[in-house]
């Protein structure tokens, strides 16, 4: 399997996951041009996509869907409620609604030889999910836009080989920053976003010897920066109640405007 972040941040998200034979995107929240450039960099074309799994309807996760659907007829997977909201987004233009494939949290499905396991997350969207994707006893997950985590989330992130996890904001930067009060409350609330500290604490619950790569993603442009997210998460792991140190794992930050390294497992 391969996992590559084409873009990850508050301004746009698009993650590639694939095997030798099947290729999918988790979200398409950047321009089609950038998506195709990213695919080309890993030796693929848009016409080779087998599907796009959508976490939720916010524009930083959907803005490239219309062009991909029109140009290549790529199937679109999301919860019924998510697809209903996506269908209302005028900026996506016209494309065949027959491409919609409603899915349900905790009901697994296949796209080619990739087994996709959607699970519910708490975010201010219609019915959002994160995704765990498996192939030949290897598994990766993309988990962002979570206001908080609980045992249900922890259980779905056990035994992974690689993970892209939200590390959205630094709490102090957010509280002292220019955002209006209502927006700060939204981000900090149970249906907002995961802070750097909470990302590190969640990782402490799921670390194991065979977790090969960790990408920190969906960083806020205004309330975080890469070095701070990286160092905060590392500190939480090293000081946390677990047998590991941050140096035991390969941890990197997924960039907003650049591709990550190709993670092969």
From TrEMBL:
Cited SMART domains: Lactamase_B (SM00849)
Domain Metallo-beta-lactamase: from-to ranges: 11-191
Stored PANTHER family: EXODEOXYRIBONUCLEASE WALJ (PTHR47619:SF1), METALLO-HYDROLASE YYCJ-RELATED (PTHR47619)
Organism: Hungatella hominis
Protein name according to UniProt: MBL fold metallo-hydrolase
SUPFAM superfamilies, per the entry: Metallo-hydrolase/oxidoreductase
């Amino acid at each position: 399997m391969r996992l590559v972040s084409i873009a990850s941040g508050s301004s746009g998200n698009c993650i590639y996951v694939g095997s030798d034979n099947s290729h999918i995107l988790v979200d398409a929240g950047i321009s089609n041009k950038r998506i195709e450039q990213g695919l080309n960099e890993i030796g693929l074309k848009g016409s080779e996509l087998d599907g796009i799994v959508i976490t939720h309807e916010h524009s930083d996760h959907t803005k490239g869907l219309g062009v991909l659907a029109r140009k290549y007829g790529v199937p679109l997977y999301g919860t019924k409620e998510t697809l209903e909201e996506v269908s209302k987004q005028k900026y996506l233009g016209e494309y065949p609604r027959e491409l919609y494939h409603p899915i349900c949290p905790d009901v697994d499905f296949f796209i080619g030889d990739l087994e996709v396991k959607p699970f519910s997350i708490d975010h201010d969207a219609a019915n959002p999910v994160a995704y765990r994707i498996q192939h030949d006893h290897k598994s990766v997950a993309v988990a962002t836009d979570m206001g908080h985590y609980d045992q249900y989330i922890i259980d779905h992130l056990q035994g992974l080989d690689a993970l892209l996890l939200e590390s959205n904001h630094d709490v102090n930067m957010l509280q002292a920053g220019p955002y209006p009060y209502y927006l700060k409350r939204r981000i900090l609330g149970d249906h907002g976003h995961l802070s750097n500290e909470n990302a590190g604490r969640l990782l402490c619950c799921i670390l194991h010897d065979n977790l090969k790569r960790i990408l920190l993603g969906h960083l806020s442009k205004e309330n975080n920066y890469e070095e701070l997210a990286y160092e905060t998460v590392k500190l939480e792991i090293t000081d946390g109640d677990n047998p590991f140190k941050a140096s035991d794992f390969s941890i990197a930050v997924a960039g907003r405007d650049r591709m990550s390294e190709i993670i092969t497992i």
